[in-house]
Amino acid sequence: MNNCEQCVVRNRAICAGLTAAELDVLSQLGRKQQVSRGQTLVWEGDEALLVANVIKGVLKLGISMPDGREQIVGVVFPSDFIGRPFGQQSEHSVTALTDAEVCVFPRKSFDDFARLHPDLEHKLLQRTLSELDRARGWMLMLGRKTASEKIATFLLELGDRLNDSGCQQSDNVISRFELPVDRQQMGDVLGLTIETVSRQLTKLKSSGMIDLPDRRSVIIKDRERLQNLASAC
Amino acid sequence: MNNCEQCVVRNRAICAGLTAAELDVLSQLGRKQQVSRGQTLVWEGDEALLVANVIKGVLKLGISMPDGREQIVGVVFPSDFIGRPFGQQSEHSVTALTDAEVCVFPRKSFDDFARLHPDLEHKLLQRTLSELDRARGWMLMLGRKTASEKIATFLLELGDRLNDSGCQQSDNVISRFELPVDRQQMGDVLGLTIETVSRQLTKLKSSGMIDLPDRRSVIIKDRERLQNLASAC
DNA sequence: CGATTCCTTGATCAGTATCAAGGGCGGTGG
DNA sequence: CCACCGCCCTTGATACTGATCAAGGAATCG
Asked: What is the rounded CA–CA span in Å between residue A91 and residue A130?
């Protein structure tokens, strides 16, 4: 059984706000699971057997085409919810981008529990609505932005989300962070090839907007100019 | 006051399943509204003051960039739900693609009502989850498909959705339909220019997969080949 | 019937993909 | 600690898809 009281995402995941008694019941249904980088938790097209809360790490949601083309359609961080409640099958795979820890529930038990707890469903609804808004912003990016605008948009959003999910108490924006993705995966998020991603990053670096101390690190040096480039919507 | 009993989307919109008494309360909150083609119901960035059910017609959800680039991020049909419950502002505009009729509720009253009716929130959650799945499929299309694949995907999905929303009792697929969008709007859905849309349609026509009896009509002549082209996912 | 708007088609251009090669970083084993 | 190997990333050359610019034609509306 899980010790929810001490869970680091206790106050931010959908479990927040449940009574001790409810949490007790819910915790009986779930279990913590480690997922190592590259490991896939759910396959595209699989029956939707589980849902989960992310406790630690970053995971991607991906869809792929028969010929191998791939699109990353979501990136989830600690306290985010994974899976498709009340659904028959998963439309996308879920794969760890970093070593991760998740709190997994069998979907059907979770569904039943949720149906009995309107507050939980309400939180789930709010999250899903926000995720939908985010997906739609992402659609604008994919459909209408240029390669450099896409990169700028991605770096800014990723920085923000890493910041938010990290329980940082500080209000000041962190401008250095580790990329949870390699160049290919950045391409899969943005609808670009690895070469284009690399070239655009180099360009942003030479223009002084960012710095790239090593392959996995980014420093935002001129946030304002980067935001302009992202065509801040 | 609305006469919900006779509403054509009564059994498919989120109101389905409410008791007569509940429906009575809800109907007091809402009113029917006509929206003519081209008219905008909600502007991007506006405070989210209203939500609605679509009764008749087709509407688009759009996001635009400062320089005028635009992306259509959703298309809604009869029985679909519009608006952002429990949210501060609308991330996108809502504009009628055809003359339409909607059942509008002030967002705050709707929110309050929904909070008191878990079944309604549950339906809203299911719809939102489906919409999110759809948006993610759309992301794959925008990020990774070629122009002709995009057009094929769009025509097939549009045909299906017009079919579903039309209360057609027949199971056999309808292969002729009216486009609710002009060429520019098709481009705004697919992340293409109007010229590319036009050229690709011409190409599909000459290859015999579709016919275009007039600017607004499409006949799917070879569904299988079109599905192959769409890279059926 | 004329005017306007929407659509198609053609010519050219630009941005990104593709193909190809080389370099740097990290990990492993000596 | 160093040398080697493999992977990831960068860079260059070229190709190609779709965008842009431009013009003409067809449908729609007053």
From this structure: 19
Q: In chain C, which nucleotides are within 7 Å of a protein Cβ?
A: 6-11, 15-20, 25-26
pLDDT digits (tens, 9 = 90+) for A21-60: 999 999 999 999 999 999 999 999 999 999 999 999 999 9
Residue span of the structural domain in which B40 resides: 4-138
- Ranges of residues in chain B whose predicted pLDDT is under 50: none
CB contacts of A124 in chain B (<8 Å) are 125
Task: For residue A126, give the CATH number of its domain.
Answer: 2.60.120.10
Question: Which of the listed residues A138, A156, A191 is the one where a domain comes to its end?
Answer: A138
Distance separating alpha carbons of residues A189 and A71, to the nearest angstrom: 6
Q: What is the pLDDT of residue B164?
A: 83
Strand C contacts in B 184-203 (CB under 7 A): 184, 194-195, 197-199, 201-202
- Name the H helices within A40-193: 107-116, 118-144, 147-165, 183-190
Same domain, A45 and A93: yes
Q: Which residue has the tokens 């339409």?
A: B100
Nearest CB among A70, A74, A140 relative to B63 is that of A140
Which residues of chain B have a CB within 8 Å of the CB of A115? 122
Average pLDDT, chain B: 94
From B99, B121, B138, the end of a domain falls on B138
Q: Are residues A168 and A102 in the same domain?
A: no
